[in-house]
Specification:
183 residues, alpha/beta, 5-stranded parallel beta sheet, 5 strands, 13% strand
Length: 183
C-alpha cells in the first residue's frame, strides 16, 4: 500500500483550509430501527425518512457543519448500493440537505472488496488530500482498522459506540481535530 502524504497534517495544516470530514452512516448517523436494507426496499416503511437518522447524531453533525464548514467524504458501506444521485435523494428526503451541499467533489471513499476502512480512506487521501485538517467519524465495528493508524495517532479518528452513534458529547473531540471554528 502507498504511504499517504500526511506531512501537512502532522505539521499542522493551514487554519484557513476547509477541513475534511470522513463520514460513515451505520452506528454514526443511523442507529436503528431502519438501515440500508430499508432504504433499498421496494416497499420501505412509511416513516423511514423521518426515522432513518438518529436525532442526537443529526444535531451533532449539523453543529459541526455549521461551525467548521467541512467538505464531507462518505465512507459508508452504503456506497456499494447507492450512487451519487441516490445519496443526494436520500439526504434530501431525510432532511440532511446540508450534508449533500457539503460533499467534497471527490465525495466518496468506498472500500473495495477485502479492503479495510483505513485502506479506503488512505487511498482517497493519496488522491484528494491537500493538507486540510480532518476528522473521521466511524463506529467501532466498521472502523475497526482505524485504531492505531496514523490518523488515529494524529487525533483525527472518532469511533462511535455501536447502538449509540454520534452525539453532542463528541463535539469537543471534533472541534479539536478540525481546529478553530471558521468565521
Amino acid at each position: 500500500m502507498k504511504r499517504t502524504r500526511l506531512v501537512p497534517l502532522f505539521e499542522g495544516a493551514s487554519p484557513n483550509a476547509q477541513p475534511l470530514l470522513f463520514l460513515d452512516f451505520d452506528d454514526v448517523l443511523c442507529v436503528g430501527p431502519y438501515g440500508a436494507r430499508d432504504v433499498l426496499s421496494s416497499s420501505p416503511p412509511q416513516d423511514l425518512y423521518e426515522r432513518l437518522w438518529h436525532p442526537p447524531a443529526v444535531t451533532a453533525l449539523l453543529e459541526v457543519l455549521a461551525e467548521h464548514q467541512p467538505r464531507v467524504v462518505l465512507t459508508t458501506s452504503w456506497l456499494g448500493r447507492l450512487d451519487r444521485s441516490a445519496i443526494a435523494e436520500l439526504l434530501r428526503r431525510t432532511g440532511l440537505t446540508e450534508v449533500d451541499a457539503s460533499l467534497h467533489p471527490l465525495w466518496s471513499a468506498p472500500a473495495r472488496p477485502g479492503e479495510s476502512r483505513i485502506e479506503a480512506i488512505e487511498s482517497w487521501l493519496n488522491t484528494g488530500y491537500r493538507g486540510e485538517r480532518l476528522v473521521v467519524l466511524d463506529d467501532i465495528r466498521s472502523g475497526s482498522s482505524l485504531p492505531g493508524s496514523r490518523l488515529d495517532s494524529a487525533g483525527c479518528v472518532l469511533l462511535c459506540e455501536v447502538g449509540v452513534g454520534l452525539h453532542v458529547g463528541h463535539l469537543n473531540f471534533i472541534r479539536q481535530a478540525l481546529g478553530a471554528a471558521r468565521s
